[in-house]
Every structure is written in structure tokens, then in C-alpha cells.
């Protein structure tokens, strides 16, 4: 109920409007009627449900009797038949075993029989028991394949009873015979024998616990025709317990079959019906099976209350119970105890009550709003206005105010609220547009357009204050009826002698200035041509744009015919609008400054990477140019795979940044690896060491020659031999030096010659473990020092040349960046033979990994930067230019479909720039035709994107790049058609 529904007057009880009275009375009557009907219906249904439950209890009693008879009838017939079989006349174990097939068939026909047996008047006993489960076989220590057990006791005068266990399989093949001296069972002492002996009719024992199987059952027995034997069958009553469990009238109902005085015969959990105390087993009583409600029923066990429904309380619940005597001729009187929770018996009644209540509530929910709506028609316009006020409070301005009323005051209120709603909506829309516009020029144009729309001015312009705080520069210009045709306004210098005093006053005082412009005013001449205002007099309104710090960032100038055209109300709205406009301008200028700073830092980093290498200078600057040229070609394509391709401003920014940072990981790559011009180069070229060693060998040969001549040798012959040895050494050095350059591939013969040359020896007389770094000393310490002088080979791969890779340098397979790289065991292998034997280029496998690792480092470095949402794909673009379209690239082995188009463009740009670069130490810059032919093969081998390569050739992007960055001699003829046909 809202506040307008109640009226309070001092001294008078609170009064409510008519529609409130009607709605409350109708609601109360409906609720009372519905409640009474539901209560009466629930009471009658509950009574009916209890009556039905009592009938169900009686039905269970009748079905239990039927189950008993169904269980007993086949056993009675079987025992009657066995009483006339030869088994009763057999006087030895062998003769009794002849009846096994008949007994097996009887057991197979009735799985409820626990055992069949015969007791003889001389004390002999013969029993067959089916071994139906593993537990029973284990109990009698039977063989695994045993399916039947025969227990036999034979007595003879003057001889100890002979007990025997015989085990048979399913086909009655004997498996084992166990003599059991301790087995002296005498059937004549058992109740079943005594009750049947000497009588010509069937007898049945009261239920009891079988000694052998611990199951509850009963025994049927009958004397044979000649009276010398009694046959019997043990019937297990477990099926009766199953029948009781299946007849539960509710989930928590309890049922038990018992005999006097409360001995349980069958229960849903039959295991509870048997108790063992002091080695003896017996049937449990009702108060021992863990069902308190049945024990409670037993207290009402008397002839007067048999068959009478009882209301009980047990375990905190109300129960309905019944004790009924089972009808019929049974071996002993049996009784059925049944109890069920009252709430479960009344579940349907409760459900119907809930449904009735829901229906009543539903009807109430439908009818009451209709009554309420009809009662409130008189106040409908006010309610609409209240909703409009609530919509304004929620900043919901989607619909205009259209409320009308015959009451003058309400109609005027509706008109004022409509104007208020429209004004606030326009103000918020302008603020949202300003804050959402990312292009600075469009922001200023939009601000000017909205201001002119609100103010009704003829024209307007925006000046921005420059960094010197003395210069106002025109940034946006517009007429009310469209864009201005001339935009050549000059900057305005602000100062004491400025010819624009109105603008100076607005800047210095931070207040809105309204000034008349006559024909002699310099400001009139300033604006007239650009705004096409002619020679008419006008009024200038200058509103300062003030940022958060209270500093003026610019001026919004409006030109109107007269001050009255704008008016005080519109001027107030314009001033309010200029606040968020100034903040938006400041934010855009700050954002642009940050972008410019970020771009400068990126270009500085790329320039530093290029500058640190004397060979690859310019690579990080040329690749962005080429990548963006290829991207422009894709955007301009009107057919083919890229006819729908386009990049917006944010995507261009992402590609620009990624292109400039594509090699930022090289800051982690050692300079000598990046710049390695020869195979032996590290921080210096070790070919000079080899040269010096050969110089030593030549000097040693010279010394040997002089010594031989001094010893009386033939000087001419020895000098000839010396020159020959020198020539050989010179040739070998030239070969080693050519291998060091890495310009051509080494074949196996060249590698073998290197190894032969390496076997030359020279004498080192100085300790090579002094004057070196501690790291190198540690590597040399892996081998013990040899006494000087030491014979060294000319070329060697020594242990100290092997630089181990630390654990920190090993990239785990489950790294978060998805790198899939084969990491060499060593970080560096500086072995001389190992390096000289590199097949192609100058880099070893370890150094090649170090070079390639700059890609992984690029991705790692960039993924750690907090890029905004539209730049989140910068790491992927920058780090994917060494991937191959077939998924064999580096470092993540991504396939073509896993790479974005800009990333694939970066790969082509990087490869083409590298092929044509003339500043690489290990190769000359290739011509256009050579470079494109190599890339065509890469296209065929699925190393680069075929569609992008075709676009690269077809659009002539390669030629545009060549004209800007390649030497004239590199620009040769290119067969574009052949390149496009490749692959």
C-alpha cells in the first residue's frame, strides 16, 4: 500500500481511500471462505484415508495367510510322497544314496527347502542339503565345485556311531568323503521325529532357527508306511519376510509376523529376527528387533483389541497400528503387527489441501488485482504520473510523458514533468555520447552539434587551450544548418593586449561571457567568413571548459542573433553540459598523450633492439611498415578470400603495436648470438686462435728444419720440405677459414677433412687455467690438469666448451603459454669442431634455439603487460610470426586455423624483410625474384599462408615496399603469374 492510499489527520483515526476498503474486504472474505472449504475437505479426506489404510492392513493379513499356504502346500505334498519312497526302507548308506536323484529333483523344484532327510528307529540319520551359495560351501569346508552335501550317521550294536559327510557336484558325481567322528546326531531326540513317529499323518513344527544355517524356518515330517523311519523337510521362511517387505503401505511402515508370546517369525529385515546368546540361537521378540512402534503394539496384544485400529506415538511421530490374528488352520496361532506413520498415510490428503490452497491463492491473485484496478480508476492519472516520476528516478527516459487529465492542476503537472524528463534525457544522452566517443575530432563535432541543437544558436566553435596556456586553437566549427564551408580560422593569442577581450575574460575568470559583436569588432571579422554570418550584428556567448583541477582547457563559443535567442534557461543547461564536456575532452587528451607515450616507448624499444645489433639495424622498423602495407591490401581487396576482411581502429592499433614489438624478446638474446657472423665467433672470432696455432705449427716446422740443417742435413732439401709443409698448413687454414664463414653447406667429405686436420698437434707450455673467469675455471675443472708442456690437437671439442643448461632455462611441457619446443640439453656448445661442422649457416643447434627463444620471450614479456581489452591479442600477433601453417613452427606449433590473419601477415612481413635485408652478416640481400621464389616454395610446403602470399604478390605490395626500402640492384623482374601458380 503506497503513501497516497492512507490519509492521516491529527485527532482523527487514520482513514483509507475507498478502493483500499473494497480490496481489503474482498480479499478477507475470499481468504476465509477458501480456508473453511480447505479445512473441511482435508478433514473428510483424512478420515477416508485412514479407513482405506485399515482395509489395506486387513488385506495384508489375508495375503500373508495366502503366502503361508502357498509356501506350505508343495512341501506337504513332497513329504507325503517321500514317506512312500524306498528311502524309508533303506537300511544302509549305499541303499539310501540310491534315492539321491529323486531328492535332488525335489530340491531343484523348490528353492525354499533347506534340507530333506530321514531318521530311522535305530538312530540312523540321512540328510541331503543343497549348497546354493559360496558362504554355505565355506561353512561346511566343501570343495568349490560342490553343490550338494549328504550327512549320514549309521549306528550298529556295540560299535561307535559312524558320521560321514559326502560332497557331490551338480550332476551328483562324488567329490569328497569326510569321516566325522564328532558327528553323532540322533534324530530320535528331535521334536519333529517324536511328533511324527507312530502317526499316520503329516506334522509341522513351530517356526524355529535351524541350527546349521541360522535361518528361520519350520519342519514338515511324516512317518513311513512301515513305521521304521520318519522323513522330514526344512522350509525356510525368508520368502515370507520378503513378502512382508514388499507390502509396506508407506515408506516408513513396519510389519512383522509373530507368535505368542511376541516371538518374531518374519520381518522385513529377517536378520533381526534371529538372536544368538551364549552360543545358542533363538527367535527374537518384537521388542528386540529395533522397531519401537511394534513393541508398543505388543502391549495392546489382547483378545479385545485384536483387529482394532490403534493410535500410537513413537519416536516423536504419530502412528496408526493394528494387530490381527491370521485366520485359517495353522500349525500354531500367528499374528500380524502393522504400523504406519499417520503423516505418510495422509500424504494424499495433505497434497489435496495444498492444491486447494494454491487454487484459492491463484484465484485470489487474479480477482484481487481486477477489483483493485477497477477501484483505482479514479486516480489513474496520478498513478501514471507517479510511475513517470519513478521512471525518472531510475533514469528510464525511453518513453515521453503522455498523461492527460480533466483536472487542470494534474494536467499542468504532467506537462512540467514531460519537459523535465525530456531535458534530463537529452542531457544524459549527450553525456553518454561524449563519454563513449573514442575519436577526438568526432567528439568535438558531436559536442558542438548537441550544443547548437539545445541552444538554438546560429553557429558555434570550440577553441582548445594549448600547452603554453596563451594560445587558443580552433578545434571544431559548425553552423546550425550544417558544417561550415571554411575552416581557416587563425589561432588567438590571449594576453593583456588581445583584441578578443571577451575570450580573455572567460578564460581568466572561468565564467560565461555574453558579448555583442558589432561590425568593427575583431571577433566579428574573425567569425564572419568562417561562419558565413555576413555583416549582420551578432551576440557571442563564450563558456569556459573547466577540468577536474579547475583549469580551463578551452572555450565553447556560440554565435546568436541576440542574447534573448538563447535565454537564461538554455544558457544554464549549456553551462551544465560544458562540465562533462570538459572532462571528456581532458580524458581524451590524457588518453591520447598516454597512447603517444606508449607508442614512443614501443618505438624506442624497437630502435634499441635494432641499434644493439650492427647487422640487423632497421628490421624492427621495416617489418611494421611491410605488415601494415599488407594489411591495407587485404582491407582493400574486393574479391577473393579477403573480400570481407577489414580492420577497425582498435584492430589497427593492436597490429601496429604487435608489429613494433614482434622482436622485443631479442633483448634477452646475447648479442654475439644474434650477430654471429662466423661459426667460431662468440664475443670474438676464435678463428684467430686457430690461425695462431697454425702459425705455431709453421714456426715449429721452421725450427725443426733449422735444427736439421745445423745437424748437417741437406739444406736445400730440408728447405724444400719446409716450404711444402708450410703450403700444406696454409691450405688447411684456408679450408678451415672457409668452413668458418658458413656461406655454403658442408658435405660429409668436408666434415671428414676437418676431423683429419684437427688431429694435428702442437705444444702448449702455458697454464690455461689462470687469468680466466670463475665460470670458465669451473668448466675446466671437470678434467684434471695435465703437466706442462701439453700436446694439444689443432681443433678440439673440450669439456669446458660445453655450457650446461640450468633448470631455470628448461621450459616445462605444461607451461602456461602453450609452448611446444624441443630444448637442447646444453645451453651452449662452443666446441671448435662442433661449430665448424655446422651444416648450414653459422649457428649451432643450441644457438639456433637461443635465437628462436626470442619468440617465446616475446610472448612471455607481452603476456605480462596489462593490455586493455582491445589489445589482448597483441601477444598472439607479435609472437606468431615464426609459426608455420602446417603446425611445425615455433614456439607453439600452431596450425593455420589457430592463427589470426594479422599474425599470418606478420610472418610474411618478417620473412620477406629478412630475405631482402642487406645488413645480415652471414648472407647478402636477395633480389625480389629470389626472395619471392623462396617464399613460393614456403607456400608449397605450407610454411606461410597461401592466400596472403597470393595477395602479397597480386596486390604489388612487395614492389611498393621494394621501392621504399630496397637497393636498386635488388629490384629485378618478377614473374607474378608463375608465383601465383606455385602450390
Helix and strand layout, with pairings?
Elements: E1 6-9, E2 12-16, H1 18-82, H2 93-97, H3 100-109, E3 113-120, E4 125-130, H4 134-139, E5 148-156, E6 159-168, E7 174-179, H5 191-196, E8 203-204, E9 208-209, E10 216-223, E11 229-236, H6 238-246, E12 254-259, E13 263-267, E14 274-277, E15 280-283, H7 292-298, E16 310-314, E17 317-325, E18 334-341, H8 342-345, H9 347-375, H10 380-393, H11 408-436, H12 440-455, E19 459-465, E20 471-479, E21 482-483, E22 492-493, H13 501-509, E23 513-517, H14 522-531, E24 538-546, E25 552-560, H15 563-612, H16 619-636, H17 649-660, H18 671-674, H19 687-710, H20 715-741, H21 748-758, E26 761-764, H22 774-780, E27 790-793, E28 802-804, E29 826-829, H23 832-836, H24 845-863, H25 874-878, H26 901-916, H27 928-940, H28 946-954, H29 957-965, H30 976-981
Antiparallel strand pairs: 1-2, 3-4, 3-11, 4-5, 5-6, 6-7, 8-10, 9-10, 10-11, 12-13, 12-18, 14-15, 16-17, 17-18, 19-20, 19-25, 20-21, 20-22, 23-24, 24-25, 26-27, 28-29
Helix pairs in contact: 1-9, 10-11, 11-15, 12-15, 16-17, 16-26, 16-29, 19-20, 26-27
